[in-house]
Structures are given as C-alpha cells and as structure tokens.
Design goal:
This protein is mostly helical. The protein folds into three domains: about 120 residues, no CATH class; about 40 residues, no CATH class; about 70 residues. It has 14 helices and four strands. It has a two-stranded antiparallel ribbon with strand order 1-2. Strands 3-4 form a two-stranded antiparallel ribbon. Strand 1 and strand 2 form a beta hairpin. Helix 3 packs antiparallel against helix 4.
C-alpha cells in the first residue's frame, strides 16, 4: 500500500508542477494577446470574454488572470514575480488593485511572507481608502437578497439624512432597506434612460393628439362654423422631417426612440451562439451604416451596443 501511496504522491507532485508552469505560460501568452488585441480578430469584445468563451476558463480564473494582465502594464514587477514562481496567481490577484510603481516591491514582499487572510488585513491597513470588504449580493429567498458592502463615512451620513427625509414623508420610521428603495426609485425616475424614453413617448403622443385636435380661438371657431356650410375643412399638412447628413448630434428624441426600440440593452449577437448580449451598462448608439459612408441619424440606422461590442464592431469595420 505504501508503494501505491508514494506513486500517487509522485504523480500529484509532477502534475502540480505542470499546472503551475502552465499558469505562468498562459499568463505570458495572455499578456501578448492583450497587447496585440488578438481577441478582437477572433470576434471577442474583450480579453475577459475571450478567456471564458474561447479558452473555457472559469469566471474566477479568468478574472484573476485578466486583472493581473492589465496591472502588468503599469507594474511589470508583478508579472516577473509570478513568472519566477515567488508569487501565486491568487495572491497576485489579491494585491493587484493596490499596486503602484512605488509600492510594488513592498506589497509583493508582503504577499510572499503572509497567508491570504493576514495579507488582506495588511492591505486594509496600508490602503484604508480601498474597502477591505468585498461587495456581495446573496439570494436569501424568492423575494429577498442580502447585500454586503463597505460605505465611506460621509456616504453613510448622507444615507442617514435620506432616511430622515423618507421617514418624514411617510410619517413613520423607515429602515435603511426602504430608504434605499425610495432613493433608487427617485434616481431612476430622473436618470434612467428607459424612464426618460417613456416620458418622451408620452410627450410625443400628446403632441400628436394636439396636432390632430388643435385648440381654436373664438374667431377661428366662428370661421369654422361659417365654412361648415360650404363643407370647407382646414387642412393640417404634416411637417416633413428633414434628416441631416454627416456627423451631426443625434436629437434627444431619436436617442429616446433607440432606447425604446432596443429595450435599453446591447443588441450584439454572438456569431457562434446567436445569444444577445445582456449588458445594459455603458451603452453607445452605433450607426449601422457609418456616417463616413453616408449613414444618417435616422432611427433605422441606429442601434445600441455596449462599449466593448461597440469597439469590436468598429474594429471589424476598419474604423
């Protein structure tokens, strides 16, 4: 039995060394892929998307690698420490958000000497402005989610002030959860592109109704009554919309209509899976036919793309 255990132990050692060597080699290759933007040539919007979809890496492994790749541009010492085997990827990812050219040697030395838990405490002391608590949302049941995050002191004071105002308006004590709900609802009503687009649609419909049934003055009413004997009806000619060509600002009304048409979501579809991108953040309005080729700001020529897929589309189109 001891011979079998020794054999398995030897195999595990061999494979673990290979695994660590592969990690280092993969990091080096990803640095080169990022530098040359090869993922764009493969049809992926970012290195993260490429790592997960093309290479099949898990979300956590991909995030660790990509974070280190991006940080190595500013701090080459980080890549060197990983390649030399003195710093595992997990710790490199842990210190990456805190690293600068000035503190790289100190933090890399800390990461080498400390276990992960102690390292997190040391980072929190060295970088107090950076939250030491990871933001987390954990589903508790069908209707509730537990939110864990770290707030700066001044933000917490503002939240308490908002809690006081909401409590006054409701004429009862209101907890932080309901306060956040009210504050978020208020913000979205004023800032959310979906809500702005809805209000625009209501205004447009009201304007159209007024155009069909214009208000008449007393004099116009009398004239209409006289003309009715001769079956003369005023004719309201529609005003033709003139769409200017060239690089001109997109009217706010058109932007709202693009938002409504595309449900404020990126419209990019993966050529392999045909799945639509789910992102609703950092959306750009994209001209299907480029302005340089005669494309206009007409609604049918506009769509929504997230920043990553917008960059990918321009890369494919050569501009």
């Amino acid at each position: 039995m001891s011979h079998v255990f020794c054999t398995l132990h030897d195999q595990a050692l061999k494979l673990s060394r290979q695994y660590l060597a592969c990690e280092k080699a993969l990091l080096e290759i990803l640095v080169q892929i990022e530098a040359k933007k090869i993922y764009l040539q493969q049809g992926y919007a970012s290195l993260t998307e490429y790592s997960q979809k093309a290479l099949g890496l898990s979300r956590d492994v991909s995030w660790n690698l990509v974070t280190i790749v991006h940080k190595t541009k500013a701090v080459p010492e980080l890549k060197h420490a990983v390649q030399m085997g003195v710093l595992p990827l997990s710790k490199a990812r842990q210190i990456a958000p805190h690293l600068t050219k000035e503190n790289s040697q100190k933090f890399i030395a800390l990461a080498q000497a400390m276990p992960r838990e102690k390292l997190q405490e040391a980072l929190a002391k060295e970088c107090p402005k950076i939250p030491s608590v990871e933001e987390r949302a954990r589903v508790i049941n069908a209707t509730q989610t537990e939110l864990s995050l770290c707030l700066p002191k001044d933000v917490m004071e503002k939240l308490r002030r908002a809690q006081d105002r909401v409590s006054e308006s409701q004429k009862k004590w209101v907890g932080l959860a309901e306060t956040l709900e009210q504050v978020i609802e208020f913000y979205l009503q004023h800032k959310d592109p979906k809500e702005k687009a809805k209000r625009h649609e209501v205004r447009k419909n009201k304007a159209a109704l007024k155009a069909i049934q214009p208000r008449r003055t007393v004099r116009e009413s009398d004239a209409a009554a006289r003309n009715s004997e001769f079956n003369l009806m005023p004719i309201n000619k529609p005003i033709a919309k003139i769409q200017a060509k060239g690089r001109v600002p997109i009217p706010a009304g058109i932007k709202h209509e693009v938002t409504i048409k595309n449900a404020h979501q990126c419209t990019y579809r993966d050529s392999r899976t045909q799945l639509r991108c789910m992102k609703e953040r950092f959306l750009h309005i994209h001209h299907k036919l480029p302005v340089a080729m005669g494309g206009t700001n007409a609604l049918e020529n506009l769509t929504l793309l997230c920043s990553a897929h917008h960059r990918l589309e321009h890369y494919r189109g050569g501009g």
